Amino acid sequence: MTDSLFLKNVMHESVLRDAHVHLPEYGRYLRAPGLSHCYSLAECIQTVREASDGKRIDEWVILSGAHVERWPEKRLPEAVELDAAGRGRPVMVCSFELHTLACSTAALRAAGITADTSDPPAGTIVRRDGEPTGLLLESAGQLVRDVIPTRNDEEYRCDVERGLKAFYSYGVVELHEMTAQPRLLDALRSSSDDFLDKMKLVLYAPLDSLEEVRKKCREWGHPSVRFGGLKLFSDGTLNARTAYMLSHYGINIGEDNLPDGQSPRHRGRMLIDKDTMRRHFACAGREGFDVAVHALGDGAVRSVLDVYEESGGSPDKAGFVLRIEHAQFISEQDVSRFIDMRVIASLQPSHLLVDTQTMRRIYPQGIVRCFPLRDLIDAAYRSSVNPRDVLYIGSDAPVVDPDPADIYQAALYRKGKEMGDEEAVNRAQAITEDELLSLMKINGS
Ligand SMILES: [Zn+2]
Question: For residue 359, what pLDDT is reported?
Fold first, then answer.
């Protein structure tokens, strides 16, 4: 916990907003932290082995929270390793940013994934010599997620309540949920806790649950639960090297044992084509809901801004507000476009604290453009726009802990507390306490 008087006071006031969360997943993470304590592949394998003990041979072993960038091996286990650790059970191991899965042979089999299975449009079944290695990137992970046993309603509701309670303890009273499912509304409705008396939720739903979430929000009509809009993905993540960049990833990525089809120098790729994005934008404009697009790389950010510009280039003309989620890298030329088109940059500064090493290793040239908070605020001032209208701050919990002290540390110092000044990630983009507070408080002042 922080020793900043500023934050202690603010957290007691219960006035903070977290603009990007995955509440049910965060609640589950608090119940079972999984692999977050592991510091090597061997520790991960050992955790899988222990989690398998006592389970039936057909029972799933599911563990998430792997931070492979702090493991010396820098990779998730492959199927053969998980087969041994889980002694033949279906095992699924997930990276902390939820975009990469590693599966045992039994898990691949349960999902029907073989050498003959083709990659889904927005995902990759990683292969070597044509055979799946067990690693699934982006939407390929959904093939396995679709067959794993889900939490029952009671577990799910408890996870939601646990998550709300933890946010409240941090002084966070407004949450923007980024993967809203209909069952989230059911859980909130059946909860006997009084969280909705003091907290507010804004829900963004993926395409497949958009209509139902929207309908349930309308029917329920609870003043503390508002339907926000559609959530889309335009690229992946830095850790999975699936974020779409304007320049190539560094040369020192995965030189050894590269999977089929992956060149050591690549830029990631867009997971959605411009026509599809245009169609969704037109629909949002017609129907009057907002759109939150995941775009992490500077290439993805630019493509999404381009499509919004073609769609009208302002909330008035396009008929909806666009938010770009993460925007971890923003090219200098694109900063003012956020302000001019009133596109919300929804950033998670505390990812700096976990991504520093990854960035230095696989995308060193990006450091100068990583979370350019200073640039965004200054550009807003220059155009007489309130920075609060174009810049949202969040955590993406459970990807990282949503402790506001971490956001504070990252936004003001651009480095972890334990790091030396020379390790800071572009100090020139630091912002002040007052600026951060104004962005994080629900009322701004
Ligand atoms: Zn997220």
Answer: 86
